[in-house]
Amino acid sequence: MQNGSGKDVAIVALGVLLVFTVSASFILLHEKQMTIESLERELAAKERLLEAYAHNETPPPQPSLCLGAARANIVAVRSIDNVGVLGGVHVEVKEGGGRILVNTNPFVEPDTQYSIRTAVEVAARFVGVNLSDKDVVVSFDINGTLIGGPSAGAATTLATIAALEGKKVRSDAVITGTIDEDGNIGAVGAVFEKALAAERNGMRFFLVPEGESVVITYEKKVEERRIFGFVIRRVYYVPKEIDLKQYFGDSMRVVEVGRIEEAYKYMIGDGAAEI
Length: 275
Description:
The protein is 39% helix and 29% strand. With 275 residues, it is of the alpha/beta class. The chain folds into two domains: 1-61; 66-210 and 253-274, Ribosomal Protein S5, domain 2 (2-Layer Sandwich), CATH 3.30.230. A four-stranded mixed β-sheet has the order 1-2-4-3. Strands 5-8-11 form a three-stranded parallel β-sheet, sandwiched between helices. A two-stranded antiparallel ribbon has the order 6-7. Strand 9 (214-227) and strand 10 (230-243) form a beta hairpin. The radius of gyration is 36 Å and the shape is elongated.
């Protein structure tokens, strides 16, 4: 009786194993079939998409449309040797979402970035446009010099105005000066060094903030004295007032401006040719 029961158990176990094996095989085949069908559907979808592109039914995404671009000259002073250098600020206006984008190559310090934002806002108000559906992209080229301080604010404002109006900023002139929310052009430093750079690079006109056409520079003096066979050298600096209008004469005209409206008249407006 025990031997018969053991055989019955073995037969039942073998039957269960057979049923499990068949069921697992069916499931695997079903899943494989489902996978093949999914791949076929995905491939068919991609083929339909490619065919639509080929017939221009669904064109690929297009880059943002440039609505205007302009460039204005700028001047800066290298901190390493206190020598002025000439460069440019480029402004592009594109379709977008009201962003002000600054290219940080070369590196642009935070105070300059804030000045750029102010410049764009002043320019938009000057032209009378809403920038909520546009992006303004600002970049600089100035021989890899670190861009710091707000002294390019006026130039950035003019470049933005020109880009919005579809005009150009005159290429034979350069302006230095800050810009505030009300459109006032403010004082900057190292005006004499910047003026030298402007003249050296062939600029015919140099616009400065009001009151800065007369500057104070410091002239280096060296005195030598002999005491008991030793040479004692004394180096000191003497303040010297320079009227830039007289200093540069006919080689470069220096003009003072106090507001962006004045700078526009000289740099972009109808009177630009007669500056």
